[in-house]
Amino acid sequence: MTFSILIPYPTIPCLTHFRPVALPLVVAVNGRRKEVREERKINSMLATRALRLLGSRALPASVCVRGGHGVAKVEDYALPAYFDRRENPLPDIRFVANLSPEQKSLKEKEKGPWASLSNDEKIALYRISFNQSFAEMNKGTQEWKSVVAGMLFFIGVTGFVVLWQRKFVYGDVPHTLSAEYKEQELQRMLDMRINPVEGFSAHWDYENKQWKK
Amino acid sequence: MFRAAVRLSVSGVRSLTRSRPQYAAPLAARCYSHGKQETDEEFDARWVSYFSKPDIDAWELRKGMNTLIGYDLVPEPKILEAALRACRRLNDLGSAIRILEAVKDKAGPHKEIYPYLIQELRPTLNELGISTPEELGIDKA
User: Fold this and answer.
1) ipTM above 0.90, yes or no
2) Do A90 and B61 touch (CB under 8 A)?
């Protein structure tokens, strides 16, 4: 009689990306030792040898055996994480890891016909496995309003700064921009017949001393 | 009549009754200069048999669904039926509801696809006792 033992994979974090496998075990049957045929390959040969030594005991989640050098603490970020994403509808782990007694009994009830579950129970089962529904995760925030408000606010502050600068920082403009200087400039340009064909002086009516209509 | 899964990236999908689109499923030959291209029926059959494995495990279900959602198509009702039955074998109602939400989201702006899928899946949903997200009220945020 041969057995194959499946390692309960959720309890071995360093194997969580691997498929559940059957490890070769030496089994004593009727006083004789028989090799069990290996059914599937496993990635890490070190873990295979180490786990072979440990047999079929479930390892605690914080232990990852590394080839005889001792144990390394598995960091949180290295474990499978839960996240709500449109493109990954079924995450690696359930959202609620530690079930309360009611949740555990609900999970037992889930093994029976689902038609016997009430709508609330179905929602509760959904919420055990998942945090946000698709509608909730796609909802979008009101953050854009704060962003636009902040933008307009700072543009306004900039406006105040510009006005203050004009009053208190900048000196006087050159005298050549005064009104009477500009009149003299205009008269000079007309006297010189600047652009008389199609441009400036062409629009001045020299007979009536006014702009052409 | 609706043989092909809807290809969403082809613009102008106005009705569901498209004949076979011009390019094959992504998993088959990506370079179209050689190699046999997989037909829609082969694609569907492959996925139906994937989910129909009697001793499918939770990892395989998740992997299959996440991969399928990654494709540029909405899965055929028969693939979804096989996936929902796999959820039943695994005693996972949450995942079954999640699958329905995911395909509705996958249809995007084509609002007529999801009601069609539910209509086709209605016998299976009734048989297995799966409620749709709308019936449970979790389709609204």
Assistant:
1) no
2) yes
